[in-house]
Amino acid sequence: MKKQKFDELAKKYDYWFLQNKNMLYSEVKLVAKVLKEGGDIYSVGCGSGLFEKILREEFDIHVNYGLEPSSDMASIATSRGLKVDVTTAEVATYGGKTYDTIIYNGSPSYITDLEECVRRSYKALRKGGKIILIDVPKESSYGLLYNLAMSVGSWDDKLVQGVYPRNPYPIEMVRSANWRTTQEKIDVLEKVGFSNLTFAQTLTKHPLYSDNIIEEPIEGYDSGDYVAVCAYKFD
């Protein structure tokens, strides 16, 4: 399998989250909210399994299966108890099984053909099952900041000085992303056949201050820098 975006960045990914623990737990609480009573859960782009480990140990939410394109990330996730398919979401088969919930936590922005991935997830969901797309919306404060940093190529540029957090997201990971608007994700879900969309959000403070406190998730998608879009399969 060819080298993936996050190969050799796995330790840096975990280190960044652990340096921004309030942000991490704001995001974990959002994930826990939308995974409540999730049944059999599959995580698309599970990364290092950091979120899944915290969910299991502190929220009694068990995510046992997932996929991750980066073998370096998958290795860490496996050590944390996940059964990981080292593959991409564009060709995922889900082992021929079906699930109650399929979650993309932080991964939609790193997927090229999101529609194809969502179609495959639709087939892998049981009737009444739920898909969850969570990431940084393009229109959010972080989305705008990340696109600016990507365009200038560095956190050292004068255009971003004084407006980014104390521990900014590694620029290598920023460059790898394709941030989408919430509406783009809604359009993909509805085109594939999902319905009954609901939304939840967190990180409602300016990026400079988003690591100051742990936020409780709230409904909607109009003020958060980390947004969950949930939809259901009914046929």
Detailed description of the structure:
With 235 residues, the protein is α/β, with parallel strands linked by helices. The protein has one domain: Vaccinia Virus protein VP39 (Rossmann fold, 3-Layer(aba) Sandwich), CATH 3.40.50.150. Helices cover 35% and strands 19% of the residues. It contains 8 helices and 8 strands, in the order ααβαβαββαβαααβββ. An 8-stranded mixed beta sheet has the order 3-2-1-4-5-8-6-7, with helices on both faces. Helix 5 (114-124) crosses helix 8 (182-192). The protein is globular. The model has no long low-confidence stretch (mean pLDDT 94).
Spans of at least 5 consecutive residues with low confidence: none
Order of helices and strands: HHEHEHEEHEHHHEEE
Distance between the termini: 35 Å
Radius of gyration: 17 Å
Supply the CATH architecture.
3-Layer(aba) Sandwich
Lateral arrangement of strands in the main beta sheet? 3-2-1-4-5-8-6-7
What number is the mean pLDDT? 94
Give a concise summary:
This protein is of the alpha/beta class and 235 residues long.
Write the layout of secondary structure elements.
Blueprint: H1 10-19, H2 21-34, E1 41-44, H3 50-59, E2 65-67, H4 71-79, E3 83-85, E4 99-105, H5 114-124, E5 125-135, H6 141-152, H7 171-175, H8 182-192, E6 195-202, E7 218-219, E8 226-232
Parallel strand pairs: 1-2, 1-4, 2-3, 4-5
Antiparallel strand pairs: 5-8, 6-7, 6-8
Helix pairs in contact: 5-8
Please give a handful of descriptors for the protein shown:
single chain; 235 residues; alpha/beta
